[in-house]
Protein 1
Amino acid sequence: MPDRKLRILIAKPGLDGHDRGAKVVARALRDAGIEVIYTGLRQTPESIVETAIQEDVDAIGLSILSGAHNNLFKKVIDLLKKEGIEDIPIFGGGIIPEDDIPYLTNIGVKRIFGPGTSTEDIINYIKDMTNK
Amino acid sequence: MDSTDELIKNMLSGNRRALSKIITLMENDSSSHSYIIPRIHNLTGKAHIVGITGPPGSGKSSVVDKLISYYREDGLKVGVIAIDPTSPFTGGAILGDRIRMKKHYTDKEVFIRSMATRGNLGGLSEATENTVKALDAFGKDVIIIETVGAGQIEVDIVKVADTVIVVSVPSMGDSVQTIKAGIMEIGDIFAVNKADIEGVEKCIMEIRMMLELSEKKSDWIPPIIKTFGNREDGAKELYTTINNHYNYLIESGHHEKKRIVRGKIELVNILQNLFIKNLYSAISEKEIEDLALQIARKEKDPYKIIEELMPRLKNVI
């Protein structure tokens, strides 16, 4: 497909109100020439999945700092499966303990970016992942 | 990967992801339009196409949010195309109009698609018009297009929408701003948003004076309505007025006239693109550059060159 533009959904599920990280990532992706669909705070898993369908995104990035990551990622992934769109890769960031990462990887989260990750790493990761 | 035929078939049977993929295809590859549009064109024309334009931060998305609610209360299916600017420096974009439309995210009869301008001027993106067709064929009763934050020249919405709403806010500038050509000429309805802030009456008066000065093109006099973001008062009146305008268009015959004009613009655009494409296959870009050099060095003038090229250009069509 000529001139394919990457479209990435950046969303914050659940109740925490800290969206600085999500905004920094959204901005960095924009500067890397990506179209970022930014949906703001307090998204439900249902709304995230529906947005991913309507916007035909190449990947979904979730930012979670509330501690409810295991639960929220699981719900989103279950819904993606229910809609038959589990081919859309999902990655995440925020405050997520190392110990939880094996579980998240196991249920299908492609990658977790912890605090201190450089935005360049995220961009390279997305470009590599969507190139396949 | 699904074939385009399969996507079209699935889209027409109501699959939202297929619709979404068709839109992506048209956004990424302009040559796909000539395959997709002939297969859906006869299914389009039923939807009321509503355009919302106005300066950045005037509250377009909030107004759209409220309008969606009213359409849904009336049982209508809604498509929304929300356009945000592409960075001219990086080609990236942050598409955030959806944020204001949160409560409709999980309503399966509301389909919201964010689009970036991708270098298109005029307030829309190149694929907007055909995305409208896809949503129309999909079965949406109303399609709302929210333009990029518009200034004075982003007026392409008038070529696509049946009803254009210009959203403005008080204290935007003195009266000269409102009589300048461009955006203020295209409104079928004016919404003065954030009407609880100071200067609202002056703003309304200025728009009214501008309208009185302008040449009457039809017997529809654009109403000016105070709105307050997504608050109930004002928004409901706006909704009723939009429907009145639609009825007026149908009854007066202007609806068809507008669509004929639109058909003409579309046809001429496609022909232009085709000619340009064929032109480059008849004359290489390299040759054009060589000729440009002759023009720059004043060895030949452009009209002389065209005269010489003419025999070859005849075959371009």
Protein 2
Amino acid sequence: MIQINSDHCDLCGTCLSVCPVDCIELTETKLNIDESACTKCQLCVRICPFKALKLVG
Amino acid sequence: MRTEYDIVVVGGGPAGSTTARFSKTENNSVALFEKDREIGIPVRCAEATSELCLRNLVPLDPKWIANTITKARLIAPDGKEVNLNLPVGGIILHRRLFDSGLAEIAANLGVEVFTKAYVHRIEPDENQRWKVFVRHLDREYLIKAKIVIAADGVESRVARWAGIKSQTLLKDIESCAQVLLGNVDVVDERIDFYISSKLAPGGYVWVFPKGNRTANVGLGVNGAQTLQKCSLDLLNDFIDEKFPGAARLTTVAGGVPVAKSLKKIAADGLLIVGDAARQVNPVSGGGILAAITAGKIAGAVAAKAININDWSLKVLKEYQTEWDKGAGKDYTLFYHIKGWITQLSDEYYNEIAEMLHKIPPSEVNLLTIFKIALRKKPALVLDAVKLFAKMI
């Protein structure tokens, strides 16, 4: 799964723009990834300006 | 909050507020939903734009302007500097004041503005209207709208829910970090750009003074060229080296689309504007002017559609046509130039800077830089001819 480090995440939404399956949700205070739809392509991991995302497991 | 609006705008940035403002008439209802608690915050922007261009588009409140710029300095990878005078006056905005100012203008015309209003789904209904699902202060609302304006930024999902492909390729997005630095020695009337694959691969570092010993210092890394170190790490290295002892007053992340604007920016009952439509100058990464230009057209077209009671693509496509033949055409050309620029090596930039050093500083301007770049890279001639034909 893609793990979100909420201490690092700035809620900028850059990851949403590159996600091929639209499985990321951004609210005012939270980033959520829908694990069931995520394909683990890791484009979000590569684009994150603050390295808040990583693939685990 | 009503249960029905003629027009619902999703997103309270410059694109959303401008579209809302130009779509509002005495005979229609317009709501603007912003997911964050305050319009204009956080500021995910280097805040530079052109004074001349903005003045043509909005009544400019002097309070929105942090600083005025007349000069630029380009720093090549080997540290060689090229100084030039800007052909048009530049300004550094206070985006938080600018954005809330634009929303106030819309509100004063009767646009209903809601913050902490998160649109989490839109669906078409059977009467050519949209069902807009909004979460506002812990309550769910279902609102009907004839036209939805997707102004929901780089993170846009509204267009996707309407079935429009807006996924951006890694090479078409810059991964950016920015710090508002305090206690720095900067020349207030000059903006600096550092170009180097070590500092910011496939992008650049900017230093934009905001007055009172402060400056927006940030960088963008092309999505296809991201490294082990993320943008924030690279920026911190740069600041430690160039501005030791400076205070980090604000730190933000952000993604800047450097793509072609979306092929489809209008559909039945839907218009897409600003970063959500990837309407950004792909060379500079500047999006404020594009957002306002698009918002003005989109707003007028939406108002007309409501007025004649037809919000199908047949009417709304006028926005697409106007954008494509105006700013859209320029930005497509800039997109090709960007593709070429991102291929250039550090050595190439060093050589250009070296050649420019042999020219008297008073004669250095964007045109001479371009001429020298052309001499070294004839493949650019075709794009350049098109570009200058357009400028004249």
